[in-house]
Amino acid sequence: MNRSKVKVGNSIDELFFIISPPPHIKSDVSVLKDDVQYLIGHKFDDRFAKAHISLFKFDVGEHFDDITRHVEDVAATFSPFNIFIKDLNVFFNGPYRTIFLDIVNKYPVREIFEKLVKKDVQYVPNITIAKRLAAEDFLKAWPYLKDLPYSQHFLCDRITVLARIEEKWITYKEILFGQ
């Protein structure tokens, strides 16, 4: 499936390579973001970001075709696998906190990342709920979310490529595994 929603004449500023969960998980994440906003009493930075597992961003325009071809070649070596999500967790970023859905089987996602980008022990696949919350906001939300049971899984069979055009992300391409 090679769908591109980029219109001819539009200038792409950046590509974002992600794993995109199915609609029911995106909906769950949206509800969790609603909960965080309600608990802290205001919007937060990534309030309206759609659920995804980040792989990498690329902004060297003259090499967009090269990097996309590289990702296609690497993706062809992978077989589809299930991603298991269980409960919420927290990253500590200095004075900030990030609340996220935890990926149980990190290794297959990390393997994709490492074959595309590089080995990086700090790369932790996850689905972000609220990024870089100030300590005060985190302390308002986390007590209500920390024990919330959550368990889902989905078939990961592709890498989604988003293109940023004029500050808006649109689907640029779906790169299937094993193609």
Task: Report on this structure.
The chain is an alpha+beta fold and 179 residues long. The chain has a single domain, classed as Alpha-Beta Complex (Cyclic Phosphodiesterase, Chain: A). The protein contains four helices and eight strands. The strands form two sheets. It has a four-stranded antiparallel β-sheet, with helices on one face. It has a four-stranded antiparallel β-sheet with strand order 5-4-3-6. Helix 1 (23-40) packs across helix 4 (135-145).
Helices and strands in order, then pairings?
Elements: E1 14-19, H1 23-40, E2 53-58, H2 64-75, E3 81-93, E4 96-103, H3 106-116, E5 126-134, H4 135-145, E6 151-156, E7 158-165, E8 168-176
Antiparallel strand pairs: 1-2, 1-7, 3-4, 3-6, 4-5, 7-8
Helix pairs in contact: 1-4
Q: What is the CATH architecture term? A: Alpha-Beta Complex
Name the shape in a single word.
globular
Tally of distinct domains? 1
Distance between the termini: 10 Å
Number of helices: 4
Largest sheet, in brief, is: 4 strands, antiparallel
Question: What percentage of amino acids are in beta strands?
Answer: 35-45%
Give a count of the beta strands, DSSP E runs of length 2 or more: 8
Helix/strand structural class:
alpha+beta
Strand order of the largest sheet: 2-1-7-8
CATH fold-level topology: Cyclic Phosphodiesterase, Chain: A
Tell me, rounded to a whole number, the average pLDDT: 92
* H and E string: EHEHEEHEHEEE
Overall radius of gyration: 17 Å
Q: Could you give me the name of the CATH homologous superfamily?
A: Cyclic phosphodiesterase
Q: In percent, how helical is the residue content?
A: 25-40%
CATH C-level label: Alpha Beta
Q: Could you name the ranges where pLDDT drops below 50 across 5 or more consecutive residues?
A: none
